[in-house]
Amino acid sequence: MTGPGAGGNPVRVCLVDDHAVVRRGLRGYLELVEDIEVVGEAADGHTALDVVAALVADGAAPHVVLMDLLMPGTDGVTATRLLTQRYAGIAVVAMTSYSEVDRIRSALEAGASGYLLKDAEADQVVDAIRQAQRGEMPLGPAVARQLARAFRAPGRAARDPLTGREHEVLALLAAGLSNREIASRLSISERTARTHVSNILDKLGVRSRTQAALYAIQQGLAPAPPSA
């Protein structure tokens, strides 16, 4: 069976932004992309939760939600946390005008799979959607620079709970490799790779591969995403 965005069913996307013109612009462009389908939109976090719940009930759950962070009522960080807690298979990519590290961290700690600025080029948004659907970590260049700067600051090291093999797995995870690719690279079974990833998430106390990848960058186990 062919997966979404891989020549089979399109990647289903839900747009969440309190500015109608932003949603209209994103929808207009994404509807031109063959392997992406916009299945819903919302103007605030509360409505987004209702829209996604309805889509899930109809068997058309979005694969990716593009989420604005600053909205009236239920904000994007809160909505992201609730969505990722309720629906493990839905990836959220935060989109906002702000690149401060605290905002980035809040979104990623809430469960967002990636973070883009609203001045991103249209093809960057499309790439981010595809990456998020594949379980990767899309970060815009400015966001990557901010994270790299913050994670290279002194005094951030913490006691490392991982084994040597788990370090190897984590470094490959942070490079965007799937469990199958990690297994191939390390000459282990895919089941063993999956077990290592699960153990890593448990030991680090994180809920997603994205958050584990950020830990790897912070500890110098993997390079920060490219800044250009």
Please characterize this protein's 3D structure:
The chain has 228 residues and is of the alpha/beta class. It has 2 domains: 11-150, Rossmann fold, CATH 3.40.50; 156-218, Arc Repressor Mutant, subunit A (Orthogonal Bundle), CATH 1.10.10. The chain has helices spanning 20-30, 45-57, 76-86, 101-109, 122-133, 141-151, 164-174, 179-186, 190-204, 209-218; strands spanning 11-16, 36-42, 64-68, 91-96, 114-117. Strands 2-1-3-4-5 form a 5-stranded parallel sheet, with helices on both faces. Strand 1 (11-16), helix 1 and strand 2 form a beta-alpha-beta unit. Helix 7 (164-174) packs across helix 9 (190-204), helix 7 (164-174) packs across helix 10 (209-218) and helix 8 (179-186) packs across helix 9 (190-204). The N and C termini lie far apart (36 Å).
Q: In order across it, which strands form the biggest sheet? A: 2-1-3-4-5
* Category from helices, strands and their pairing: alpha/beta
SSE succession: EHEHEHEHEHHHHHH
The CATH class assignment of the largest domain is: Alpha Beta
The CATH architecture of the largest domain is 3-Layer(aba) Sandwich
Q: Kindly report the name of the CATH homologous superfamily of the largest domain.
A: Response regulator
Using only C-alpha atoms, the radius of gyration works out to 17 Å
Q: Report the major sheet.
A: 5 strands, parallel
User: How many structurally independent domains?
Assistant: 2
Mean residue pLDDT: 84
Distance between the termini: 36 Å
| Structure summary, number of beta strands | 5
Overall 3D form: globular
Question: Helical region count?
Answer: 10
Low-confidence regions: 153-157
Strand content: 5-15%
Under CATH, the topology of the largest domain can be stated as Rossmann fold
> Could you estimate the helical fraction of the residues in percent?
40-55%
